[in-house]
Amino acid sequence: MRKALICGISGQDGAYLARFLLEKGYEVWGTSRDAQASTFGNLLRLGILDRVKTVSMAANDFRSVLQAISHSKPDEIYNLSGQSSVGLSFEQPAETLESIATGTLNLLEVIRFLGLPVRFYNAGSSECFGDISGLAADEDTHFQPRSPYAVAKSTAHWLVANYRSAYGLFACTGILFNHESPLRPPRFVTRKIVQAAVKISKGAKEKLILGDMGVQRDWGWSPEYVDAMWRMLQTDNPEDFVIATGESNSLEDFVATAFAEVGLDWHDYVIQDPKLFRPSEIRYNCGNAGKARTVLGWEAHMKMRDVVREMIRHEQQS
After folding, report:
1. Separation of CA 42 from chain center
2. In the chain, N or C: fewer CB atoms in 10 Å?
């Protein structure tokens, strides 16, 4: 039985990845800063908490990382931890950089220090590309980070590449474009939109206030994207991969789709507030996952409208 350690198992991707690996017969371990105090709510929602072993780990503390890896003895490590909000990174840049970049460095250094034959996956981000001016980014597209979050993710990406080439670690980064699910916290705009549409359709007298609705994103489905993470660690040689749908839609399109799913016209319920616009916003992103399709046999089946439909359905049932 193979063992996997998921750093950041409490989040959206961590929970879906845990379920995915359990279905493949893995022994799954997951980290939380304080595993005894954490509720692991997403694992509970998926009904798998009692099948996961948990361990406390602070990724920015080398000794803590060393103890967690020594205790769990994993064959595969999935690094999904760290501050995950682009917007919040402007308010907490130092914490964002430390949790993502230093956390990744500690994991890599522990693997090197212990000499373990571990396969390491690092969660990258399409935010690293910045504004790509209407093009679809692939693995050769240059990084132009425009937020503290993107700077941190770019740093982690190059740390992984350095440890792969300098020390021969099996380490790779998945450069994932936006991917959503019902497990997204309400502070993320996609879940905020879906929640508001469902509440208003049930009679709530409220308005949905959003920032720039003209931005365009490549939105996929999180349960499909964790499959890609696993596939990256099953290859003969570690490589980085862009994971995306190849389709870009505006936030206005997302909003219109969500409200149409509940039989409403979004124009009657949505207000755009310039105070919510982000500094140095990325206007457009889209990914070219051709390499993943060729090498991994992976491609996205659910596009933005499918994602919205599933999120609405789950919200209505909750």
Report:
1. 14
2. N
Domain shared by 107 and 193, yes or no? no
Query: Do 128 and 275 lie in a common domain?
Result: no
The reply to whether 84 belongs to the active site is no
- Same structural domain for residues 94 and 164? yes
Q: Report the alpha-carbon distance of residue 159 to residue 245 in Å, rounded.
A: 26
pLDDT of residue 16: 98
Q: Which residue type does 313 have? A: R
CB atoms within 10 A of CB 305: 17
14 closest CA partner among 248, 152, 184, 139 = 184
* Rounded-to-integer distance, Cα 168 and Cα 170, Å: 6
Number of domains into which the chain is organized:
2
Q: Which of 72, 84, 125, 126 is catalytic?
A: 125
Residues 172 and 108 in one domain: yes
Q: Are residue 197 and residue 155 in the same domain, yes or no?
A: no
- Across the chain, which has 318 residues, the per-10-residue mean pLDDT values are 96 97 98 90 96 96 97 98 89 95 98 96 97 92 95 98 98 98 94 98 95 95 98 98 98 98 97 82 94 98 98 95
Cα 274 to Cα 296: distance, rounded to the nearest angstrom = 42
Of the candidates 144, 154, 5, the residue with the CA atom closest to the CA atom of residue 81: 5
* Closest to 89 measured CA to CA, from 80, 99, 79: 99
Sole residue written with tokens 């690094």: 79
Is 125 tagged catalytic?
Answer: yes
CATH of the domain at 272: 3.90.25.10
User: 141: alpha, beta or left, given left = phi > 0 and alpha = psi -120 to 50?
Assistant: beta
Catalytic residue among 121, 149, 225, 269: 149
| CATH code for the domain in which residue 51 is found | 3.40.50.720
Kindly name the residue from 27, 127, 224, 315 that is annotated as catalytic: 127
User: Rounded to an integer, what distance in angstroms lies between the CA atom of residue 15 and that of residue 8?
Assistant: 9
* 78 catalytically annotated: no
